[in-house]
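Predict the 3D structure for this chain.
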Amino acid sequence: MSELLRKFQHTEAIDGVKVIHDVTKENSPLNYVGFKLIELSQKAQYKEMLGSEECCIVAVTGKITVSDGTAVFENIGTRDSVFERIPTDSVYVSNGAEFTISATSTNAKVALCYSPSEEAKPTKLIKAEENSVEQRGKFNNQRLVHNILPDSHPAANSLLVVEVITETANWSSYPPHKHDQDNLPEESFLEETYYHEINPKQGFLFQRVYTDDRSLDETMAVENGDVVIVPKGYHPVGVPDGYTSYYLNVMAGPTRIWKFHNDKDHEWILNR
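Done. Predicted structure below.
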């Protein structure tokens, strides 16, 4: 099994909380990005104290209440399925803060997106309607983008968070692009994680992660609920006919700018 592919974990609930994924710098090749996925039964609570990391709490599905001890955001979350194609609510919490998440629906799925942070910022509700929505690509390269924390959003110090729906028989993160060089203004260094869901659930897709010199070159069969880790390199996603892909991206690096570089061998497709 590739060290870049984390399979969906069928864990037992503890006090109504299941930790499905927990990607950290201690158990992965990442230094700037952390990712956790939890599932909560109704009325279950999850509490965490942040150290030198900031966190974006994404209500992936279901409804939750989030509190940092002062601010309380009640009953947030907009959808029962990511394939409803509508944005959802999120909450930004800064380093040094403690937060509590309570499930207010029967089941709630929550993504916790982390990156290093030194400057404390206010806790902020990022409403679904604040997400900028884009339709990108053409031909068999079409996807719908919900920008939760783009680099233009002032709430965070390091984090970038985005959701992408890729239509059936289409490619995404394509033509292959990378952002692994701290060489602004041409390219920024950003690590990345992809949390994947697939509709129908029994489907699969392929994601390749590779560098120009092929010192890293892995192609992974990704199933519903898996996470792919991208420490560097190009990282295209291919979705088979009959299935639709959703992924949640977390990015972070030394500078909070998304500036990518296309693989020159494949950039020609943009000019069709």
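The two ends are 37 Å apart (CA to CA).
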